[in-house]
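Task 17 of the worksheet. Students: predict the tertiary structure of the chain below and write it out as structure tokens. Keep your answer in the requested format; marks are given for formatting as well as content.
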Amino acid sequence: MQKTSKAFLLTGLLLTILSSISLYFYTKKLLQDQVEESLYSTEARVVDALRDDQPVFSVSPVIEVRKVDKTGKKILKDTIIYDPSQDEMEEFRELSTYENIGGQLYQITIRDLVVESGDILVAIIISYILIFVLSVLFLFFFNTNRNIKLWSPFFKNLEQMKKFSISSNEELQLVDSDVLEFSELKEEIQLLTSKVRNDYQNLKQFTEDVSHEMQTPLAIIQAKIDNIINEHHINDKQFEQISSIQKDIQRLKHLNQRITLLTKIDNNQFVKVETVNITKLLADKVETFKELQIDYIILHSKTDLVVSMDSYLAEILINNLLTNAIRHNTLKKIISVTLMENSLMFSNYGKTPLLHPERLFQRFYREVNSVKSTGLGLAIVKKICDLYGFKIRYNFQDSYHIFEVDFKGNGVADE
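Model answer:
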């Protein structure tokens, strides 16, 4: 709408300039024709008076009649001469002709002031510009106010659309409009958002049901495999195959647990908010990994970082980021975990930067297929950060993958 208003003003300005120039030259031509018509009319009256032997007086500089010995060309021109009545130099339009009357040759010169017609011309142009500019301004403000009222329902509905969340059950407060197109748009938005929400709820329910239903069969399969290993004599090849099946089952169980966790976060089932000491939580995790012979994690901490959030999700957040750093630290170089006043940073060595860092937090995205993972760990990290308003960033610097979680602004507890 602002663009339309600017275009209207620019168009009005352009029209004012062009129409003023056109009006100037057209009016000037009309006034000049009027002056020349007056000159020819006066010249004709002087000639008639001379033919009728009536006395003709020279009124310098307006009318001058002189007897001359030779004829000349008719001249019509602008000239500047002294005007005794004004006691100054003035611009005149001058007509000079030669007439042979009764054997006597006369030079007849008729002049008319141009200044007067010029003043009229300037007055007309100024009046026109004022009227035109006022008209444009009036139309501009009138149309602007009218457009604001006309587009108001559209912009209100647009604001509602910006607040739309597929996971929220809050209804959109759309505004009706007298404009048919806006009214149809509102109805289509209501239909579309309703359909999207229904599809999302159905999909979420399906995922939740599948995850729930998979738990029992997986547990039964796991128990039966354990029985086979414990109660039956199996050779090495069979043991290798059963172990592979166990690993796949464990992976399915992890995948199922993570999908269930994502569903619970989407359903806002983690409403408990408590004070969590991230520094202590990290120190405990690092010690746990050391017991598993993963002793290349270095924790740098100068302050206690305390955050308000669900303690279970805090543990998941820390665990997933640490596991991700360990999994992709193929050369087993030092993994640095740095705690700052309002943020937390993980840094692990990597040969090359990621090919698609913008897809890093998408579900089931794996940059390297050879690395065994569910592809949901970082998606869960992102979902937890979004839940509490934390910011998570990734960048590759000096051959190191760096993940930084910024707790500032939301979730940092007052100590």
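Marker's comment: The chain has a mean pLDDT of 84. The first strand starts at residue 63 and ends at 67.
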